[in-house]
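Below: protein 1.
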Amino acid sequence: MFPFPSKPGSRPTFEDVFFEHRTRLYEWALQLTGRDHSDAEDLVQELFVRFAGAGPVGEHIENPEDYLFSTLRNLHYARLRRARTSAIDDLSVVDYDSAERGLRAVDRNGVLFIREDLHRVCDYLCERKESSRAASIFILRYFLGYFPNEVVQVARTTRSAVDKAIRAARNEARLDLDRPGVLQQMAGARESKSRTSKAPTDSQGLFLALRTKIFRSCTGECFSRSLLEAKYKDNDQSFTTAELAHLVSCAGCLDRANRLLGLPLLEERSPDETIGRDTPQGPDGSAGATPTLVSSRAKRKAEDPQRFRKRMQRCLEEVNQHRPQHLLIAVDGDIRASQRVTAQFSELRAELRPMEKPTFIEVLSEQGVCLAFVLVQAPVPEGGLQQTKEVRLSDDRTMKVAVSFTAESPTIQVVYNDPLIAPEVDVEEESLKAVSVPAPKFEGIPASDNRWEIIFRFLPARLRRWLTHLPHPRMNPLLAGAMLFALCSVVCFILWTKSGPRISATTLLARAEQSDAAVLQSAHSEVIYQKVRITTSRHTTERAIYRDPQKKRRPKQQHLSPDDQWLKDKLNLAGVNWDEPLSAANYSEWHDRQRMKQDVVTQSGSNLLTLTTSATEGGPVLKESITVRESDFHPVDRTIELRDTGTVEIAELNYDVMPWGAVNQDWFEPLAGNAVTDVPAMHAAIHIPHVLSDLELDEAELSARVVLNQLHADTGEQIHLTRSSSGIDIKGVVDTDVRKRELVSHLASLPNVHPSILSVEEIGSRPQHPTFGNDQPVQVQSVEAQPSPLEQYLRENKLPLDQLGTISQNLFDQSLRIQQAEVHLAELQQRFAGGKQLSVDQQQQLTELARDYINTIHSGLEENQRTLRSIGLDNGEQVASPAPSVSSGEDIDRQIHRYQELCRQLISSGTGEPQSAPTIATQLRTSGSLIRSGTAQIYASVSTAHN
């Protein structure tokens, strides 16, 4: 049921009906909006804008009051549907025609988000207006609510100049919001002004606060009445930049100009108390019947009809003055089509669903302003099959809307004409456009009622629509969704098949190792023959490799050229076995040692798979790849990218498994017993062990030391190297089995190096053998231990004692590092005294190794010095030592032992009278200076000898 009773009478205008029943319309709007006064007034205002100028009520409308209520309800539902895509989400706050319209576009919660932006824009324009007329014009339009034609009168300029000034100032304000500080006015950055929490959070208060800020920024003297009258009467006079800046920021001068020009005063431009929509909260926290208003409605006086009529007329004028940037067609509140306005004539079409019966059609702008409103009437035989409406806007702009029912699907056509766009085109752009674009023709229903004439006239359009709308528009949405899903599935399947092999790195390596191990399952004793090519940027070599898959016989050591030896050393450092360079197991060992890595498997040919592993940790290898045959996963290529020397590529040229009878036995080391072969049995000859030369021992030990240094096993772990006639023996104990396997895997690939390393886990699992002997009595004495000098120092200086353990541990660890590095450095001096026989690369390795040990000593001394300095025991002054300089290895060893003993005295408790902490710290500085000078001389001698 409708709320208004039907009453007969003459046909009044919609405007008269609206003002007559505005109170009842407002009450119904309150019920529709859940008692939201702001939203209700906005809804009533939109209803007036749509029906203003509609003329008398049509004969087909029996009850205009009920008709207005129905339209009010439909407008409310349309706003709810469009609220999901609010314009404020797509537009900046400065993109609106005025700040008042921007505040109307958001609810109360949204005001909190745009409040800071509005204040920043206002601050920027208040400063910018002193040097730019565009800023003053934008203040009039945006903050003070002047229409463009009113700005033309106040600023004494042209409409084209006003449009350009508004566009330029809006771009500057938007840039200042997006990139604060880019625009610096008055040859310096603006002073940032912070807002306090007391700043108004409601729309009405925020709007008035912004106007107050503008009027407070006024500078200069006010205009006299005679001066203003002279400026506005004389067409030759205009305002300077400073005068215009004063005029827009002085309320008295601006109202004086308004009276002279017959324009509304500032108080009439002040928005009502309901700008900004509230979001009422109900019992469930989402919606309710008691809204929270922006300002108290109880304190607001009832608005007289004359003032209300004035306010509605000004809202209508605001719509007429609005210039859209985008056009949108909404049917019953749903957006059906949109288009950007880029030319003087803009044409927009929308085709509705077949047999659709729209109730009303709106043409909206990007700011939600309704520029045209059409109440769709059902087509009748005497009324034709088309309904048209023409809306005249300001500045000779027009908008024509036509709704056609000639086809099965109703069609909407909109043609918008804006003559102001043509003068805005730059001269350069006009010169590029040699062909003029004609205005689009506004189609109408044919005047003839001949059915066949209508059909043939619209036949091309119907065919075009039929071809462009396959499948048929009546297709079931579920069927359309199923077809779309099937199409996407096919596309995804094609992409999946083209994306690469479906195998993981772990599976590829596992199958490659199984391929290598397949030879071991043979019942016959066989030997593997493999020919490879190794290529680097500086050297290429080809090798024929013979190896026993049972690991019973080892190939004899072959003499290598200097380039091949250099290449072998590089591969050994990278963990590549020289005798099995394409081994999948060898690649897996390196792969598993990388704690952080990235694997990529690609198809590198019709029958090849390549695994590329990128190492993200520090180490000699940056990236490594292995290529296998997809048919049997046999490795055929391996590429190693080293950090210092570039890329090494190993490619297989030939591979075969042969019986032992086809192989020269002299290529392998003889067995101590009888070998199991398929050749006639021979008596084993006595094998005399090969005695290594000093040069071979030097090369083996240097290679082992370099590997241990790269693995950080020479400092912090108990690893010892000893020489024997058969090679270098490496013994030691490490913490875990993983660490043991890591060291052994690197050291085992080195020639003449024999690692024998145990882990703490292995030692702990072995049974303990009891020792037999006479039990010796143990005498226990109790003495009172004195605090260490370091602890005594901390107590005396009232420093926190919780640092004692950390400082003591750091001093002890660094002194141990220094001692271990010195031991290795001394061994280098002793073992490689005749190092001139080494190759150039090996001499360079020896020099780098000595430098590393010396740097370790120096860094340990520096770390201890920083630790002592942190508690005030080392003031950083250089202390001259009366002791002579250290030059020999024995002197350095003695000084390092003394340095270690001083560290022990500083952190250990005793029973006697120990030295004070400052005294020990001074002796540590002196000892450290002697160690530095001695190691520097050693490094100089090593560099001179090997360079």
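Below: protein 2.
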Amino acid sequence: MLQFMELIVENHSHPLGIDCGKPRFAWSFAVTATAQRGQFQSAYRIQVSDDPQSLLSNRGNVWDSGIVQSRSQANIEYEGPELVSTHPYYWRVQAWDEVGVISSSEVSWWEMGLLEEKDWRAQWIGVNPDVLAQWSSGEQYSNSKPLPLLRREFALDREVVRARAYVSGLGNFELRMNGAKVGDHVLEPGWTNYGKTCLYAVHDITPHLRAGNNAVGIMLGNGFYNVNEEPGRYMKNALQRDYLPKRVQQDDLKAIIQLAFTYSDGTTEWLGSDESWKVAQGPIVYSCYFGGEDYDARKEKGSWDQAGYEEDGSWTPAAVVSAPGGTLRREMNPPNKVRGVFRPIKWTEPSPGIFVADLGQNFSGWFKLSISGASAGRRIVVTPAELLGEDGRVWQELQQKDAAWNYFVYTTKGEQKESWTPKFTYTGFRYVQIEGAVPWELSLSDQEQPGETGKPVVESLEGQLIYPDAPTIGQFSCSNPMWNSIHQIINWAIISNVKSVFTDCPHREKLGWLEETHLMGPSVMYNYGLANLFRKAVRDMADSQLADGLIPSISPEYAVFEEGFLDSPEWGCAYVLIPWYLYHWEGDAKILEEHYEGMARYAAYLTNRSHNGIVSHGLGDWADVGPNPPHAQNTPIPITATGYYYYVLKIMSEVSILLGKPGEASKYKELAEETNQAFHERFFDQSARQYGSGSQTSNSTPVALGMTDPAHVPDVIDHLCADVVARGYHTTSGDVGHRLLLTALAEGGRSDVIADMLNQTEDPSYGYQIVHGATALTEHWDGPTSGKSQNHFMLGHVEEWFYRHLAGIVRDYNGQTPKGADLVIKPFLAKGIQWTEASHLMPQGAVEIAWKRTDAGGVELMATLPPNLRAVICVPAAEGAEIRENGIPVEQIPDIRIMESEAGYVRYAVGSGTYRFTSSVPIQYPRSGE
């Protein structure tokens, strides 16, 4: 019988505040040791109730799907009566296996959010403009406005059984109640185009309440809603609130909150934000996503977030302010949390009184500083950085070239022990420089002894890693230590650049450059359960789309750039590619339906920009390798621009078929064919059998995107391999071209070339970064050098190759999986690799793969597949090799179906279960350059 592993609603387990009227259900199955092979779900039944007991009685009193004959187990839409805002619902699934045995899941639950605007019984509130002007004129370290605190007290005279807070604060907020932080989310809500969409969170506040008087408080932070310049602090000028015209609204800080108290008698009472709230300036006197944060502990308001607090004259009535304009939506992307801690592995004192801690890892987040022995008013300056300068101090060349730094200031309040963590900004760093305090490890040798008359002592310093609360759904390792290190630095760059947007870097810009979102999409999806963040990215792109159909190169569009930085097809095509990937990876057709019109408008925009089938604008193969500045120096921009235009048309044709739009499908197919013909007429050299300039990206683009005549592919691949080999197995491709290069080589049967590229340690290569001490993937191939970001995930495309080709877990996004199968297992036995292991969580459940070379010269391939998944396993084998499964000749095993072989592999169709294939004579792959 089938055993349930997890039940999810809208890609969440037990979600609070679902605000779509027809939520979608999914479930996965566990692999058990006693399960029979070939298990699958033949039918399911979903039951939904407002009472968990009715489900135990086999009755769904809200909705019962009935028995549905289907193998579907994901994206199944609720079809019952209209759901009610804020109400909890309970559900379970029954599943019938292949022989009709029924399994029942445990009872799970979800809770609805605020479905309509009228459900909000609250108003946006903020600081009265006159009061705000008074704050700014006071004595501060910064000319920027200090961050406000909002508070209100209320009384409860009955037993509360359930309480929720529906809250949004722009740009960021922290919710507090009765003296404590509510929840463990940070930097919420997510970044959006606030004039189109504003996200709200839902928190369970039941444990924070007490009988009688209570207090609720909100701290507000600037985020991207209020970006201000400050002299001497780093600022990405294009993002400054008053620097350029904006298409994303920015304004003074504001919040909206609605509390719901459900009592034991079944009634519900609401408390919303209005002018009865009070506001005062808090101890955060400067905060900017780019320049850092300053905290003056002398300005703390004591027990301001507790009941009975005596408000002084600094507290004034909150003002009801204008709404930001965007629709309030429940934030469904995973919330940011502190997910890890780093402590110093080394302290140094490069100059008297200046101390530097090495945390050992480049990551994004913030720090926690704990000190002792400080008199009131001592300023402790904390400067994070990715690199050290020649003098041993921290080095921020990315910021300090304009004499503007990213740093943090803590002003002590004079208590024996104090600790501080920033709240509304983060950065990427490895090193932390401290001025104004001495680490306890070095304090005994310091001439100025700590204490009342000396420096405060740093009792502890820790770096805190921040990234979304999303599960790790992939694991990879192999016998090559350097390849494992490459895998690690790519993953550090991924998690460092995932917040509520996929950012380019965690320090200099923090912008959602869209080419990374789609080019690195498969690499991210193999490793992390971030489907809802990709869905948010699609919504952000829709909100950014201009009237003429253009998708700007960044989203949300916090800066209005010009030319290619505004409009590049290799970037904007993410609006078509990401929904397509989500359909293939998650089975999500709804996102295609929701965004079809916008996707079509973008395709039409590119068509209007084309001339005789060729698109010639954009950034091209950004960051390519050569003697000139790395801005598409090797490859004509129309190669990549037109290539992705063709790919957009091809996908739109397939999406149109899927959505039942045959006329549109024919239109896009015809236009794609015309574009491909124009591309070849202009760029394909018939005699030389290569494209454009003959660069690696020129030849990779049409092959990888399916434009090249299959008869010509081998010749083009030969040219591609020859170029890579002639350069010592090094790439010349950039941000766009590198994934195309790896795809063309791998799909063209030349992963051996990729393997040799991965073994290089000279610039440009991943190995160069490893041997020079990089702990996260760097922006450019030359690795840990000044002037470059030390934490960029844009060139991490080989991560996809590790899973898809070396391990052989072939997730589909181009319709390549054979009919009747959900997955292809096809490992590449790379030269010099003795073993590879990988796992990946699919909608059906966890897939595990391991292969190794045997002492006898053969290969052993193990695969574990979850119930309801059908796979084609391609066992590497030369012609005539003996292949066994668990020691038995395969042809004698009835539940393994032999399929037609292909070069170097024997293929088998299998169902769920664990398999151990052995091949006596594995394929001998060609040498690089042959």
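Residues 63 and 80 are 5 Å apart (CA to CA).
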